[in-house]
Amino acid sequence: MIMRKMVKYIWLASLLAGGMLLAQDAAGEGNASEDVALRVKIDTSSARTTLFTFIYAMDDFRRGVESDDKLLKARIDDALETFDPVGQPDAERAREAAMLLKEVLDRIPIELPEDADMPRFWRINNSPIMIRGMESGPRAGEYLFTASTIQKAQSLYARYQHLPYQEGREGAAYTQFMEDQKARQASLPIATVSTSSPRETMRTF
Q: What is the Cα 180 distance to its own chain's centre?
């Protein structure tokens, strides 16, 4: 039993490392975002592929934040394809939830069950993070992060942020992204308010 768990952890680590190596290779061959675009594949046919679709997309997003590459940063929208659309928040909140979820996943050990043992409701490492098989609706047959997982992203991050990253994992550059957003907002010109006439007052209102 211990040996089986070790093998699973090693297998998971190798897949994560493989994704990082692909990203590094792309970065070393001219335009990183173009190379990444060529290998993008969104696969939600199983809980396993959904997890890695999300992880790889968010790793690309992190690299985009660090290098200010717009195409790589846009990969966060591919990560959102792994979310249950029912009850999903607006796009901005959904993207923040994706960043927070990746920050949590990179801080906890992940043990993948064998394919034959993979349940339709998979709770990752006994955490509140769940992936479930959709049984109805336009995305029936796909495996997606549950709506409750997405809604709890902020509280999950508050619960796990004190933990260090697992070996080989680097989060989602959440802090840097939020700081960049605040800096951009602070640099925007402040609109002037004119009350010199009823017309100008109404236009400002």
A: 18
